[in-house]
From TrEMBL:
Coiled-coil ranges per UniProt: none
GO MF annotations in UniProt: nucleic acid binding
InterPro entries (alphabetical): RNaseH_sf (IPR036397)
Name of the molecule in the record: 9613_t:CDS:1
PANTHER family given in the database record: CXC1-LIKE CYSTEINE CLUSTER ASSOCIATED WITH KDZ TRANSPOSASES DOMAIN-CONTAINING PROTEIN, EXPRESSED PROTEIN
Amino acid sequence: IKNKLLEYLSFHKFKLSIPNLCDYVHDEIFSSVGIETGKTINVVEYHHSFLDSMAQYKLLMPDWSDDLTQQINPVLPAGERLHILVMHDESVFYANDGQRAFWAPIGKQSLRSKSAGGSIMQQNNSLLFEQQIPTEACCIIHLGNNRDGYWTISDVAQQLKNKAISIFEAMHPGCVAVFAFDNSSNHAAFANNALVVSQMNFKSEMNYPDGTPKEMYQVLEEREPDFVNQKSLLEKIVEEAGHKIIFYSKFHCELNYIESYWGAVKVNTCANCDYSFKSLKNIVPMALDSVSLIQIRKFSRRSLHYMSAYRLGLSVKQAAFAVKKYKSHRRIPNNILEDLNIE
């Protein structure tokens, strides 16, 4: 993306206009960036595919009453099991991430460190229908080479395989988990023994039965379906356990309600920040518990409203207007197009 933008700016530096730049970003960049799963899928196409998949899953998932206190299970078709959405995400909290504005005597200014300070990363698995998620399903690490290190795909896989799935099955026996992940390169990583072209040795020698040398590109052409259908490490773990997995659309954080949860948590940590790593270790767990289940369900309903708006063909700005107008409704009504004067 960076190289494309630099090339465009360099070529049009004497006749650059904001409208033309926006059109270029929309037409050339957003429509050409591939999903980071080793497959060149158009971002817009994947966005629509994601919305369709979530609509199908929603028919098999519980809902809640208007006051967001009572769980309402759907009438399931024969042979189907109840599906439960399980959110997964990570967020980093910094010791020096305090409030940006504060009161101070005239002529005096508080001196603050320019560095972000020590950091803590919280990995969460979130369920809308549970007040308390077992602490084993979550993970807090103190980032840094001299602390707990850094969170990698192997850590995600171990947490998912050894803890999250088994905890879900104990809490919801007989149900199917739909694990939802951000569409990041870390979550899309392959297993060490997966078929990945970039990890292959192209200098290896192979021959046909008659002794004729066989080039590596010929092997790749013969085995192309195996490479195309190669699944990521997380996909393999979840599907082998009998559950389902889905990755969110790129560039649409409003569809993932856990992002709103992180925002609410960070409001709390910033308000109680005293610029020390020792205090941060105490503040983060309390801030995580400060957001009520009702508030989390409100975040979820807002994300579902965005999905409904996009399915109706609304743009980002139109969807934001519709979500705000119908925030107390269970869904965006179909007549929203008339309110927006869209034919």
